[in-house]
Amino acid sequence: MKKKLGCLHAHYSNIDYIENALSSYDIELLHFVDPGLMNRVTSDENFKSADAQKKVKDQIEWISQCHVDAILVTCTNYIAILQEDQLSISVPIIKIDEPYFEYISNINEPQIILFTNPATVKGTMERLNQYVYNNQKPVDLEVMVLDNAFDLLMQGQIVEYNQELYNFLNQIIRNENKVISVAQLSMVDASKQIENQTSRTIINPLNPLISAIVKQLSGS
Fold first, then answer.
1. Whole-structure pTM value
2. How far apart are CA 174 and CA 162, in angstroms?
3. What are the residue ranges spanned by the domains of the chain?
4. Taking Cα atoms as reference points, which of 55, 102, 75, 65 lies closest to residue 212?
């Protein structure tokens, strides 16, 4: 029987990445998108942490009732807000950042981790630092943020967004010998374009994530 994966996204742009990456697998995808939550978290002073936690809890529990075999959360800020001990579900939750964290924590060389969305940096790095601490795998990481590019994506200017990111990655490659990774799904296309045109590998969160999804669903 085909496995069903419920996917919770903070933005519609993540859907295509997951759809395309899993297109060759016998997995049915059910997508849930709520861009409003992160908008309120970042811009509404009256929207408290407890409100955000309740909203994510309600979303996860709603998805779990849709007969899914696993739930994928593709937003690191959603993951940071999520309080798993408050959930009353048995469906496994796959978090986009954990396979990525596992991958980069096994690299012993100095690394650069690149973001385009400043709002995801704090939550992602806090979770990465906790992961590193829990697994006793210290990493040598430098964080870089490509300012203003994410606004292009939010405005639907995907071509312009990818070009900005491509140019910035090219600049980093010329100036740095460190291992480079991109922290967001929206950065995958530009990073793959760089890989195809140069000899440099750009690590992205999608490849280890797909392996984790397939492993989870094949065993569930």
1. 0.86
2. 18
3. 3-95+207-219, 98-204
4. 102
pLDDT tier at 219, thresholds 50, 70, 90:
confident
CA dist 53 and 178 (Å) reads 37
Read off φ and ψ for residue 102, nearest 5 degrees: -60, -40
Which SS3 state, helix, strand or coil, does residue 122 take? Answer: helix
d(CA 6, CA 67): 9
Question: Which distant-in-sequence residues (6+ apart) come within 8 Å of 154 by Cβ?
Answer: 11
Residue type, 173: I
Task: Fold for 98-204, please state it.
Answer: Rossmann fold (3.40.50)
Judge whether residue 39 has pLDDT over 80: no
Q: How much of the chain, in percent, has pLDDT values that exceed 70?
A: 100
116: DSSP letter = S
Question: What is the rounded CA–CA span in Å between residue 21 and residue 137?
Answer: 29
Query: In this predicted structure, what is the pLDDT of residue 36?
Result: 78
Instruction: Please give the CATH topology (third level) of the domain spanning 3-95+207-219.
Output: Rossmann fold (3.40.50)
Q: What is the dihedral of CA 115, 119, 121, 123, to 10 degrees?
A: -140
Q: What is the pLDDT of residue 216?
A: 93
Report the amino acid identity of residue 27.
I
d(CA 5, CA 72): 7
Which tops the pLDDT comparison, 49 or 172?
172
